[in-house]
């Protein structure tokens, strides 16, 4: 049990299907920049960024992985020892949500037991109405907010919808993870209420284990 | 004579292929030969000889070649090539001259040598082969060459159109040192339209072009080029833009495929026009993200070419399909190559140069990362210690270098220089450069303690490759050396010890670990994504998974992980391994019970089962609930899904039940009732003994089994046999008795007309009847034996949890699976042979997993049973046309009569099985 110290290093891994915007999220967070037609990540990329939350400073060591299915077998190399993970999907691509579900299971089974996972539905800009209003464009969204929330609730994940393009909610993801990490370490297993600026934190029923699927008779 | 020689040659080559498989590289000697001369694998050595070579060209202006000693080495003849390599130094002189380019072969006049042949090519290159050895052997070589040339005549027509696509030919024709007519510049890379990367002045493109021009004149070009030290030198200093594509394909040998398969590229695209695939979806995602900074890939022309090449390859090799990084590699190739050139070059790259890099599991990539780490450890122990101490993940830095051939890591102009050498010298180049990068940054890297700094040092280094390596040196000559030049010198001088052999050895060392890691990952993923199977435990699931892949891999040529499916034949094999009730299956029998199971489980109706299909099926097969078990069985026959099984179906059920129950019906296995009987008999006996000895204490530990006691097994067996036959007879009788008529009205009408039907209208073959689920259940439940069959007998004789045969080596099978990933039609034959090789090489250890697995009966007995089965078949099928009651009775009698003989014959057999297969049975002979 360690005391929260300034500039804690946190190893964070990004997982998710190809072209959902993993690298773009990182680029937005690290350089506050956005690129169309970004070259696909080969293997993995590594970036760091410091993030100040309250009185603490967290130094994120971000491992941005390649999304294509066949690169999945490389992933264990990268999520090894990770304290946090962001599982990204594209809210306009249902298949990417299924893939996200798989990644969450894989992490629960294989990664560090106390890993903090955030589920992120990216490309919110695509469903946003042009006039910046509250409404959404019809028919573009393919994964509902509820679906994301439900998965997050089931598996004990943080949940956000973001847009790397407009930078909507991107920093909140990293702040949310940062908030959760020391508390998880210091408060151990006590349930926590951690609503950060109206973000939904569904961590209360956490610690579900992946081994319960496919149970025996 | 020639015929026998040819035959002998062939036998020898085949034998060599079988015996001389190099364990380290996993290649046969034959493959190694083809790979090292970059010729297609379809080539085999027809004849060979020691030889000295004289080289002369009509366009050679100076006579420097004449003054040099003749290179000595070995000359080989294959179906399409005349190949030479210097015995002492490969680089001194070697060639692979395509037979199509040979215009003339003659015996030179006045030769002082014993035997000489002068081979002249269309490009006016004259190769004099002075054959060394016994004259008759030399004669035979000449004879073979003549035959090969004659056979090759049909391919000569491909030469002319091919020449038109080679820039070297255009260059020579334009400068009038060729007899060929090449009037138009051949289609080349995008660089011709969008400019080549880099400054041609700076790279002295013109000078290089002139040097190559001279080389072509003297040493020949493309299909008939002689590789001399100058050739290697010119590749190393960097290829001129316009010739780069052609030299690449010449170096890696893809040129020969392009020659052989002219037009195939366009045909593939045409054949798959407008078709969709998963790979294409993936390709589309990346088209705009491939070298986006190069002008051509901001235009539709560049994007279109890239799309076509990647798509064509994904059709050509669906097992690889498309892998990210291929987009970058192909985009780079297309700057210097036409689509067709890039397509074939990509083929050779994926199949031969870096196999497994882009495969579905990327095992080649993972393996080479391990190899790289181990080479770092070997060559730079201090740095390695530092890396491990600080837990720096080296592969995150190096993996993209290998996978994208440095194209995504360093500025393109430099990456292309590395590619030049890579195509010439193969994958070792990647390692040499990678090691040199670490070496040159060694000092800085030793001061880093985290991945972040480590990565940024290297990133910075790549961005400054153009800068001076010694900016502070007082010597201007030193100052002018760039970091890139320094890198090449370090890579190819200092790390020249990193040769192919070392890489192959290191690969062999780590291969199994990598396969294991991947296989456990793949297995985990696949098991996790399976539907819920309530009747199968997690451990059993894992066993079934292994078994599935063991039979799939060993019995069929696979499509690789994830897409592996099981055809009917393999399914039968699989089921036979785990089900005691499966006896000989004729796979051609379309009406067989297993065929029915297979078709029913084949949810996609694709004639094959996925692992999920199989699992869902098995899950229902072993359902412990009697009612569910019966309805699952019923569903198999309810083909229309209307809850009705017609007359034909009922007959089929009873026939299948006879089949399923044959082990019990034949007294090979004992069911619960018989077991209970045996136990009773033993208990009686024990009890009797106890009573006799006056010991009536109920204390269990006191009970001793009499050692001399013999259960009258004949009798018990006989009882069971009769019980099963009775059950079968009763079943069909009752099924028809209680079957519902299809339409009541019809029945009434028929009854009215035909009064001769006395007892049961349903038995009249003209009356449509059906059996529904409740009736089926009732009929089954009415018989104790069949009730038990569905309740437990069948399930207990189905051993999902049976451990795999220990002889099954998952690693080896996995390796086959990975090989399968790279298979294409043409190679299937080779692979099959390889499999046979490895099995033979492994001796007894490589026996197929099924052969010794719980085989219930000896061969002799199987035959006997098959006959028996046939009798049954005939009996039941013919019912349709005859009086049921009568026939059923006789059929039962016939079978009973035959069966009474059998148990005695097979007693020895069944004794063994009882002892082995049934743990519940009390051992009564000890």
Layout of SSEs?
The complex is a heterodimer of chains A (217) and B (926).
Chain A: E1 8-16, H1 22-31, E2 44-53, E3 56-65, H2 75-79, E4 84-90, H3 94-110, E5 116-122, H4 124-127, H5 145-155, E6 158-161, H6 170-186
Parallel strand pairs in A: 1-3, 1-4, 4-5, 5-6
Antiparallel strand pairs in A: 2-3
Chain B: H1 2-19, H2 29-36, E1 45-57, H3 64-67, E2 72-78, E3 81-86, E4 94-98, E5 102-106, E6 116-121, E7 125-132, H4 135-152, H5 159-163, H6 167-174, H7 191-194, H8 205-219, E8 226-227, H9 229-236, H10 241-252, H11 254-260, H12 264-271, H13 278-286, H14 300-316, H15 326-336, H16 339-353, H17 363-379, H18 381-389, H19 394-403, H20 412-425, H21 428-440, H22 442-446, H23 451-463, H24 476-479, H25 483-494, H26 500-528, H27 538-555, H28 568-578, H29 593-601, H30 611-621, H31 626-637, E9 645-646, H32 647-660, H33 662-665, H34 672-692, H35 713-738, E10 740-741, H36 744-753, E11 769-771, H37 773-781, H38 784-796, H39 810-821, H40 825-841, H41 859-878, H42 884-905, H43 907-917
Antiparallel strand pairs in B: 1-2, 1-7, 2-3, 3-4, 4-8, 5-6, 6-7, 9-11, 10-11
Helix pairs in contact in B: 10-15, 10-16, 10-20, 11-16, 12-14, 13-14, 14-15, 14-16, 15-16, 17-18, 17-19, 17-26, 20-21, 21-25, 27-28, 27-39, 31-37, 31-38, 32-35, 32-41, 34-35, 35-37, 35-42, 41-42, 42-43
GO molecular function (chain A): GTP binding; GTPase activity
InterPro entries (chain A): P-loop_NTPase, Small_GTP-bd, Small_GTPase
Pfam families (chain A): Ras (PF00071)
């Amino acid at each position: 049990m360690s005391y929260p110290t300034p500039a804690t290093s946190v190893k964070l891994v990004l997982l998710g299907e190809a072209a959902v915007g993993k690298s773009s999220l990182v680029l937005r967070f690290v350089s506050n920049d956005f690129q169309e037609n970004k070259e696909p990540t080969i293997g993995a990329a590594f970036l760091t960024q410091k993030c100040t939350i309250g009185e603490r400073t967290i130094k994120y060591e971000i491992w941005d992985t390649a999304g294509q299915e066949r690169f999945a077998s490389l992933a264990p190399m990268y999520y090894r020892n990770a304290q946090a993970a962001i599982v990204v999907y594209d809210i306009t691509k249902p298949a990417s949500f299924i893939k996200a579900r798989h990644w969450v299971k894989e992490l629960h089974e294989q990664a560090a037991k106390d890993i903090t996972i955030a589920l992120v539905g990216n490309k919110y800009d695509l469903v946003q109405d042009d006039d910046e209003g509250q409404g959404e464009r019809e028919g573009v969204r393919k994964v509902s907010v509820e679906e994301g929330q439900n998965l997050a609730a089931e598996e004990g994940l943080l949940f956000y919808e973001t847009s790397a393009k407009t930078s909507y909610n991107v920093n909140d993801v990293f702040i949310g993870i940062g908030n959760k990490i020391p508390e998880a370490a210091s408060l151990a297993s006590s349930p926590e209420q951690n609503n950060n600026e109206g973000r939904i934190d569904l961590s209360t029923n956490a610690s579900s284990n992946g081994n319960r699927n496919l149970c025996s008779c | 004579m020639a015929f026998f020689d040819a035959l002998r040659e062939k036998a020898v080559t085949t034998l060599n292929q079988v015996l001389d498989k190099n364990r380290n590289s996993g290649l046969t000697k034959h493959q190694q030969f083809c790979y090292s001369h970059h010729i297609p694998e379809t080539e085999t050595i027809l004849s060979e000889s020691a030889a000295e070579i004289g080289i002369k060209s009509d366009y050679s202006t100076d006579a420097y070649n004449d003054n040099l000693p003749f290179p000595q080495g070995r000359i080989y003849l294959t179906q399409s090539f005349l190949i030479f390599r210097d015995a002492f130094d490969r680089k001194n002189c070697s060639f692979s001259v395509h037979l199509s380019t040979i215009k003339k072969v003659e015996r030179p006049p006045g030769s002082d040598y014993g035997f000489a042949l002068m081979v002249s090519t269309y490009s006016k290159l004259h190769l004099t082969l002075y054959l060394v050895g016994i004259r008759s052997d030399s004669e035979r070589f000449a004879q073979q060459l003549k035959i090969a040339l004659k056979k090759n005549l049909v391919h000569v027509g491909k030469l002319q159109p091919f020449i038109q696509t080679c820039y070297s030919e255009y260059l020579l024709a334009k400068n009038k040192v060729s007899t060929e007519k090449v009037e138009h510049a051949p289609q080349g890379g995008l660089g011709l339209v969008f400019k080549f990367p880099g400054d041609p002045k700076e790279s002295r493109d013109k000078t290089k072009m002139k040097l190559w021009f001279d080389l072509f004149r003297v040493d020949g070009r493309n299909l008939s080029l002689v590789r001399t030290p100058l050739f290697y030198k010119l590749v190393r200093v960097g290829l001129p833009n316009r010739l780069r594509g052609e030299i690449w394909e010449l170096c890696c040998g893809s040129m020969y495929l392009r020659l052989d398969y002219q037009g195939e590229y366009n045909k593939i695209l045409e054949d798959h026009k407008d078709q969709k695939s998963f790979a294409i979806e993936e390709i589309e995602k990346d088209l705009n993200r491939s070298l986006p900074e190069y002008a051509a890939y901001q235009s539709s022309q560049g994007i279109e070419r890239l799309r076509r090449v990647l798509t064509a390859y994904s059709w050509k090799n669906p097992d690889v399909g498309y892998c990210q990084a291929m987009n970058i590699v192909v985009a780079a190739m297309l700057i210097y190559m036409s689509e067709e050139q890039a397509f074939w070059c990509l083929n050779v790259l994926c199949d031969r140069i870096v196999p497994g890099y882009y495969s579905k599991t990327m095992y080649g990539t993972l393996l080479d990362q391990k190899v790289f780490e181990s080479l770092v450890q070997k060559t730079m122990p201090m740095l390695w210690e530092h890396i491990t101490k600080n837990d720096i993940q080296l592969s995150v830095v190096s993996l993209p270098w290998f996978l994208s051939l440095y194209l995504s890591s360093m500025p393109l102009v430099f990456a292309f220089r590395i590619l030049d050498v890579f195509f010439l010298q193969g994958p070792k180049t990647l390692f040499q450069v990678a090691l040199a990068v670490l070496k040159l940054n060694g000092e800085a890297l030793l001061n880093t303690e985290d991945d972040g700094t480590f990565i940024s040092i290297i990133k910075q280094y790549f961005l400054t490759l153009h800068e001076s390596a010694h900016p502070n040196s007082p010597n201007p000559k030193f100052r002018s050396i760039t970091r890139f030049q320094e890198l090449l010198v370090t890579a190819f001088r200092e790390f020249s010890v990193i040769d192919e052999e070392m890489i192959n050895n290191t690969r062999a060392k780590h291969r199994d670990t990598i396969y294991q890691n991947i296989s456990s990952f793949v297995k985990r993923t696949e098991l996790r994504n399976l539907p819920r199977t309530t009747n199968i435990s997690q451990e059993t699931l894992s066993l079934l998974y292994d078994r599935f892949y063991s039979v799939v891999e060993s019995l069929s040529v696979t499509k690789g992980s994830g897409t592996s499916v099981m055809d009917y034949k393999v399914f039968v094999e699989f089921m036979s391994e785990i089900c005691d009730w499966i006896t000989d299956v004729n796979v051609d029998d379309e009406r067989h019970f297993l065929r029915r199971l297979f078709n029913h489980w084949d949810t996609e109706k694709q004639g094959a089962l996925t692992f999920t299909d199989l699992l869902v099926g098995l899950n229902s097969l072993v359902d412990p609930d009697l009612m569910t078990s019966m309805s699952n069985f019923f569903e198999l026959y309810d083909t229309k899904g209307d809850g009705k099984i017609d007359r034909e179906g009922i007959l089929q059920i009873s026939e299948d039940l006879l089949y399923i129950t044959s082990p019990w019906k034949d007294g090979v296995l004992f069911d619960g009732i018989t077991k209970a009987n045996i136990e009773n008999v033993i208990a009686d006996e024990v009890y009797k003994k106890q009573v006799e000895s006056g010991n009536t204490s109920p204390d269990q530990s006191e009970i001793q089994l009499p050692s001399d006691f013999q259960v009258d097994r004949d009798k018990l067996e006989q009882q069971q046999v009769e019980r099963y036959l009775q059950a079968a007879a009763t079943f069909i009788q009752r099924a028809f008795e209680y079957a519902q008529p299809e339409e009541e009205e019809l029945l009434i009408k028929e009854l009215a007309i035909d009064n001769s039907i006395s007892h049961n209208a349903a038995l009249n073959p003209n009356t449509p009847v059906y059996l529904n689920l409740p009736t089926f259940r009732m009929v089954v439940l009415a018989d104790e034996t069949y009730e038990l069959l569905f309740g437990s007998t069948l399930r207990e004789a189905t051993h999902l949890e049976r451990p795999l045969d220990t002889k099954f080596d998952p690693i080896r099978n996995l390796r086959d699976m990975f090989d399968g990933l790279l298979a294409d039609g043409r190679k299937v034959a080779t692979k099959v042979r390889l499999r046979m090789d490895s099995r033979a090489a492994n001796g007894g250890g490589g026996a197929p997993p099924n052969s010794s697995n719980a085989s219930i009966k000896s061969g002799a007995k199987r035959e006997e049973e098959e006959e028996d089965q046939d009798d049954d078949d005939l009996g039941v099928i013919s019912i349709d046309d005859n009086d049921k009651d009568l026939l059923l009775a006789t059929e039962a009698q016939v079978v009973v009569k035959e069966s009474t003989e059998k148990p005695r014959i097979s007693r020895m057999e069944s004794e063994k099985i009882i002892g082995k297969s049934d743990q519940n049975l009390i051992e009564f002979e000890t």
